[in-house]
Fold these 4 entries.
Entry 1:
Amino acid sequence: MKHNEKPLVTVILTAYNHQQYIEECLNSVFEQTYMHIQLILVDNASTDNTLTLIQERKTPSKDFLLIKNLYNKGLCTAFNQALAHAKGKYVIDLSGDDVLLPQRVEQQISMFESLSEDYAVIFSNARYIDRKSKLLDFHYPVNNEGKALVKVPTGDVYKNVLERYFICTPTMMMRTDALRELGGYDDTLKFEDFDFWVRSAVKFKYCYQDEVLTHKRILPGSLATLVYKKNSGMLASYYTVCNKAYDLNRDQEEFDLLAARIRTFIRKCFYAQEFELALKFRMLLNYIENPGWKTELVVFLCRMHLPVNGLYRFYLKHLQKVSADRKDLGVEIVN
């Protein structure tokens, strides 16, 4: 690459039954102010009109590779399929229902190119949108200038990753060589983000860019809502990642943070009626510290196999409805 040549960015777009949103998503890629983009789109065996809409937009004038899967291979495998063909120095992982703002790639490239090689990920703020693209809340609340009102971790974020969810996944831009060094996503898991954060943040730095550059769509039945669905595989994937973190941890504070996270998963196993998995989490926790009476009480309730899942999911739906009603009554959405 010549010294003054702008780096190529590969956008990996995975789509499955996104016919309502795929055109808006594709337009957001095509309308970027940054021109040096390779688009690799994986249709994960959509059963609606998604693939037809994609093929109508595919033109030979663009660096656009379409991969058509004959069956749904899962998000992580689909991403790895595309990663094998990525030519860009940097990669963006985009879902077929999310939207890039026009200067997203240009602004992230500008920052990434100013960072040292020990940075592997840039992430930013985001605005949530609903199924009709109505603007909702910000991922991090902002002031009148659009800057985050909270302190967002940056640099060595491994401890923060263990402690809580704080990164909006579709805002990330990743160094391709770092992704390949890590072996891409773990395709045995139901999701990619927590596992990738753990494996990458222990080796590389993250940089927070305080701009709203992405719209993330919130839909009922999304992957995040499956945690409390019995035998969805989500909690089993979290168990796998917690075991990886146990092997990667470097000091006692990291083990303390992991222990606290494991306790939350034990409670989630109880609500999801994944009782045997709760016992596995409890065993992993016991390697770090004494579980204590509160956790042991939850484990005891798990051993009783109480049918709590239906009631708890009804409770969650009620909370979501109350929250939506409050927004409809009193919150002005600012464009």
Entry 2:
Amino acid sequence: MVSRGIMKWAGVVLLIAALAFFFLSRPRSTFRQDIVYGKGGSSELRLDLATPAQGAGPFPALVCIHGGSWRSGDKSWYRSQIVTFAEQGYVAVSINYRLAPEYKFPAQIEDAKCAVRFLRAHAAELKINPAKISAIGDSAGGHLALLLAFMDPADGLEGNGGYSDQSSKVQAVVNHYGPADLTVNEKWAQGQKVQANYFLDTNDPAAPVVARASPVTYIDSADPPVLTFHGTADPIVPVEQARRLHDVLKKAGVSERLELIEGAGHGWNEEQRARIDKIVLEFMDQKLKH
């Protein structure tokens, strides 16, 4: 009797172990690279895409936009993040866009808008909920993510990349230390003037293109919620940019949250990143899943 009981429980343990192995070994996301999402002038625009491996969807979508002062960087910088987002139930993409100085503003935002329109145009096949698309970006990518949140078709700058029948507006944005008001020239660190010729083709902070490239120019009460993270010791994009952005958002009645990371510079260490990533997922779940 004892041996039979032991054999019975051994069988149960083996069954549980087999089931655990089966579920733990199943892929939690799928990854595709270098998908053409539109045209930037004569250049093909490409993105990487991560999708939840299980479930029929439709899933909310996240558009991740790399930084690099609008003149460097690559979509691969967000590869690990988009895989993590997919494992949490999002279709996540990381995009490339045309870079300065070869391409001046507004090429960069035109490409980002095209990416959002591409996702909506292919929502069914990509298992995306077209009414639940958000943007995340760091530095220059944060700037572009903010423009996606605030600009409307009437503001122009949609570009000719494709899918003109779709909206490029996003439903939430996470901004990591992105410039928000490029007209505030005197507060930028020496050598880091955002109004440089390589991006805006002017060094004059009063030039119309500078205001046109500033996210705060477009804020109104209909804009989606914004979550910003900014280091108080950022030597490249002054923390005043984040404070200015959220003052304007508050006055407009837009849902906003500003997280100042005390002592942090232009980026996060491992400990800061873990805390920030947790807040980002909570914010996205609240805004896009519930």
Entry 3:
Amino acid sequence: MVKKLNTPITENKRITLNVGDEVLITGTIYTARDAAHKNLVNAFENNENIPFDLLDQVIYYVGPTPAKTNQAIGSCGPTSSYRMDKFSPRLMDEGLNVMIGKGERTLELAKEVKKHKALYLVAIGGIGALLSKTVIKSEVIAYPELGAEAIRKLEVVDFPAIVAIDSKGNTIFK
């Protein structure tokens, strides 16, 4: 049975999900890839403000293509998540609790997910054009100089994902 989630995704919601659960997310999610993650971590290390409050928010690892006419966003398939593993623990310390990407994460990252009662979700790669249909609004909110890797605020309706690491640290990859 598919579970519907509305953002922000609080701990009370996260702890009810298990590895393998299929979810549909509706609400605000943020995009960020490697360069944006590095900028966010640097901002925290320098006591600077970041462009949005991380608490209970969702970051989607994606660098979307430009939108065509009458589209909110272009193709927006997930990128490989392992590249964010060195940044994710710090972002979780600052309140991030849901990450969406593709592929396996390290065992250390799974321990951090458990520690923070967070979630790592996977979106299906290769269907970026279909995933873009769940995005009803897209707005660059930070680091426009990064182009496709700029941080975007997306409004999504029924964005599909699968729980790959649950709040108990269980992983789908074993």
Entry 4:
Amino acid sequence: MSESGDWDPGQYNKFAAEREQPFWDLARLLQPVDSPTVADLGCGDGRLTDALNDRLDAASTVGVDSSPAMIAAAADHRSDRVYSQSGDIGEWERVDSFDIVFANASLQWVPDHPGVLARWANSLRPGGQLAVQVPTNADHPAHRLAGELAAEWMEHPPPDPVEANVLAPEGYAALLDELGFDEQLVRLQVYAHHLSSTSQLVEWVKGSTLTRFKQPLGEEEWLRFVDAYRRRLLEVLGERSPYFYPFKRILLWGRRSSTAE
């Protein structure tokens, strides 16, 4: 999932229900295929990879992730049809090997989306489908304040991957067309999350965007950074209970021509 340090599956899954909403919305964009072969890129702890395999009645599903902690957790979901492997999804390519390439909330962590999506498209057989979801909420205060604070703590802080890497929705539509997808759908969706308090928003980003600071800061300094971030965020947003968190995401789907070129 992250290319900038390891992840904590427990922290990430504190908001499992909210994070699953776009996953299943993305899965619903897929058109039926008999016993497809599936790649889940940025598979995380493998729980949803297993569920996706069941939903699609797939012949096999491979999950790929760069996080050792996530891959270790995914081993619990291994079966005769589901397995996982460590890998860099930004460089991943398996020419003409899959019916479905699926990536939920992982593409944002790697740069050069035109190049990455070209490799993923090349991995599809004729008639294969690509389904990708990326967050596009870099303008939310929770993200802006993280970047501002990091600039005070670090000489060269890692950039917000969403701001640095994610294209506009129309950019992905143009890209799918260039890559030869005869059918496509690209949409921007705002998810309405109701957190118990503003403080819970800190717990949310602690399991996602703040992880990029953990490796360069070190564990102890990172925990102090998170405490400072919490104070800064509450100063700006105030402690509200409940807290409404609007989360923008791009969902894109495409089907390649069924005729091999």
